[in-house]
Design brief:
Layout lengths: L3 E4 L1 H7 L5 H7 L1 E6 L2 E6 L5 H20 L14 E13 L15 E6 L8 E6 L22 E2 L2 H11 L16 H13 L12 E12 L5 E10 L3
Parallel strand pairs: 4-7, 6-9
Antiparallel strand pairs: 1-9, 2-3, 4-5, 4-8, 5-6, 8-9
Length: about 240
C-alpha cells in the first residue's frame, strides 16, 4: 500500500480520461465533457480523491506504455519527459509574498522537494501545489505542535516560471512545453535549493527518501532538472 505524500489531482484529471474505457469502468471512474473540457468524476460511492488514488497504478502503467520508462539520471532527457525517481529529498513550502511582477498575480501555495544528493548528482527539484499535499508530517516527528509546516522557501525565479506555466492550458498533463524566458533563472534556483542545508534554513526537513513520477518542466546541458510531480510517496521510514 502506498504511503502517499503528494498526489496531483489536476494531472490525474487530465490523464485518467486517457485510460481505456474498460479500465475506467473497473475503477468506477467516468470521463466526460464539461463546458468542452475533459473532466472526471467518481461514479462509485466515494470521494473523488479516494477514487483518484485507486486509479494511480493504472495511470502510471499508461505513462510507461505511452511515454516510456525513464530515470532522472538518464542522458538525453528533455522537457515533457516523464521520469521516475527514488532518492532522498528535503522539502518545504514557498515563503508567502511576492509582488506580482510584470502584472502577473502572485503565485501562492507552492511546495518544493530538493534532491539531497547534490553535488554527487545534478540538481533536481520538484515543484507543485501545496493543495495536493496529502501528508504534512515531518519525517522525524519533531515538527511544530500543529504539524502543518515543513519549511518556508522563497525563490522568485521558480515562482515566475510557475506564473508563465499557468498561462499554458493543460501544461502539466499532456502535450509539448515550449521554451520559456524564465527557464534559465528557474534552473539557477534549482541549484540554489539543492545547495541549501538544514542548519541554514529554518524548517528545512532532514533528508527523507521519497519515490514517485514527475514530468520535466526544464532541463539544461548539465542535467539540472525542474519537474512537477504526479505523485510522491515515502519510499521508506
Amino acid at each position: 500500500m502506498r504511503d502517499l505524500l503528494y498526489l496531483s489531482e489536476s494531472k490525474m484529471g487530465v490523464l485518467v480520461p486517457q485510460l481505456p474505457g474498460r479500465v475506467r469502468d473497473r475503477l468506477g471512474l467516468e470521463a466526460g465533457l464539461n463546458a468542452g473540457v475533459l473532466s472526471l468524476k467518481a461514479s462509485m460511492a466515494s470521494d473523488s480523491r479516494t477514487s483518484l488514488i485507486g486509479a494511480l497504478d493504472a495511470v502510471v502503467k499508461m505513462i510507461e506504455r505511452k511515454y516510456g520508462h525513464r530515470r532522472r539520471t538518464e542522458p538525453g532527457l528533455a522537457v515533457g519527459h516523464w521520469i521516475e525517481f527514488d532518492e532522498e529529498f528535503r522539502f518545504g513550502s514557498a515563503w508567502p509574498g511576492g509582488d506580482g511582477a510584470r502584472g502577473h498575480p502572485v503565485v501562492e501555495g507552492l511546495v518544493y522537494f530538493a534532491a539531497a544528493q547534490y553535488p554527487e548528482q545534478p540538481p533536481f527539484v520538484l515543484v507543485g501545489s501545496s493543495a495536493h499535499l496529502l501528508d504534512r508530517r515531518r519525517p522525524t516527528g519533531d515538527g511544530p505542535p500543529d504539524g502543518q509546516q515543513v519549511g518556508h522557501f522563497y525563490v522568485e525565479a521558480i515562482r515566475a516560471y510557475a506564473r508563465a506555466l499557468q498561462e499554458i492550458p493543460g501544461h502539466a498533463g499532456v502535450g509539448h512545453l515550449p521554451a520559456l524566458g524564465a527557464t534559465d533563472r528557474a534552473l539557477s534556483a534549482v541549484t540554489l535549493l539543492c545547495e541549501l542545508e538544514a542548519p541554514h534554513t529554518e524548517g528545512w526537513t532532514p533528508p527523507v527518501r521519497l519515490a514517485g513520477v514527475a514530468r520535466i518542466l526544464a532541463v539544461n546541458d548539465s542535467r539540472s532538472i525542474l519537474a512537477t510531480p504526479l505523485y510522491i510517496e515515502y519510499a521508506s521510514r
